[in-house]
Amino acid sequence: MVTVRAPATSANLGSGFDVFGVALSRPADVVRVTKASETTIEVSGAGSDFIPEDPDKNTVGAVAEALDAPAHIEIDKGIRPASGLGSSAASAAAAAVGLNELYDRGYSREELVPIAAEGEAVVSGEAHDDNVAPAIMGGFTIATGDGVRKVDAEIPLVACLPEIVVSTRDARRVVPDGTSVSNLVETVGNAATLTTGMHRDDPELVGAGMHDSVVTPARAKLIDGYDRVRAAAFDAGATGVTISGAGPAVIAACPEQAQRAVGTAMLDAFENAGTQARVYQTKIGRGARIR
């Protein structure tokens, strides 16, 4: 048996739609894989009642098939599904790393990314590397068609998850089909600023680079209280605030000393909007690791 812990992730980070992602130090999924003649899946933990155990409908089943590695796979969910924190990506990433080890397939971490992304497609409808890349490799990742680039950054983050469900499919439907040249220029500039901030471990630059005027405003309409939460986080010391992945989680960058205040402010703002939430004081962390 091989046991793997795979972290929650935050994709997009505002200006890096479908490209940027970060691994979070918490929460995480734990996946155990044991060789078997056919793949079976057992799920427990957060939101497990809503996760199918049929291998044809679960991300890890697709990963096992892609690796030709049948196994009994136990998934202990620490990341709620439909959270915007890479729940399905974490399971797929952990399964890919664990089965690669169990069957000695010999794939590198980067080579496992597209395999895990195919597993993600079972849930989201499309294969995207932006969540699975940091879940497998850790750090801040830039996933493009020609591979993944990684930066080992150390940026404090606060993730606030409201008791709202936003599916990845619904969040993709509201993304605009196009934008203006001025918005494109602004987004490129912000993405460059964020990337520079990651290289420098600078929360101010990372926060400034999280602004996005194209995708985020469209998705914000799916999250009751988002504008209030964003404003409260800035007032408490956040340097940047945006939707985490498809939402509904909201992610904020901030100096370490402001984490508690930012988290409390975001919780209070959601509560004032009539929504319960929970907060994670976290940071950019490691990728999937074998225990």
TrEMBL record:
GO biological process: threonine biosynthetic process
Protein's cellular compartments: Cytoplasm
Reaction(s) catalysed (UniProt annotation): L-homoserine + ATP = O-phospho-L-homoserine + ADP + H(+)
UniProt domain GHMP kinase C-terminal: residue ranges: 198-269
Residues of the signal peptide: none
The family this protein is said to belong to: Belongs to the GHMP kinase family. Homoserine kinase subfamily.
Pfam families for the chain: GHMP_kinases_C, GHMP_kinases_N
This protein's pathway: Amino-acid biosynthesis; L-threonine biosynthesis; L-threonine from L-aspartate: step 4/5
InterPro entries: GHMP_kinase_C_dom (IPR013750), GHMP_kinase_C_sf (IPR036554), GHMP_kinase_N_dom (IPR006204), Homoserine_kinase (IPR000870), Ribosomal_Su5_D2-typ_SF (IPR020568), Ribsml_uS5_D2-typ_fold_subgr (IPR014721)
Protein task: Catalyzes the ATP-dependent phosphorylation of L-homoserine to L-homoserine phosphate.
GO cellular component: cytoplasm
Name of the molecule in the record: Homoserine kinase
GO molecular function: ATP binding; homoserine kinase activity
Enzyme Commission no: 2.7.1.39
Lineage: Archaea, Methanobacteriati, Methanobacteriota, Stenosarchaea group, Halobacteria
The GHMP kinase N-terminal domain, residue ranges: 60-139
Domain of life of the organism encoding this protein: Archaea
Record key words, sorted: Amino-acid biosynthesis, ATP-binding, Cytoplasm, Kinase, Nucleotide-binding, Threonine biosynthesis, Transferase
Binding residues for ATP: 80-90
Location (main, coarse): cytoplasm
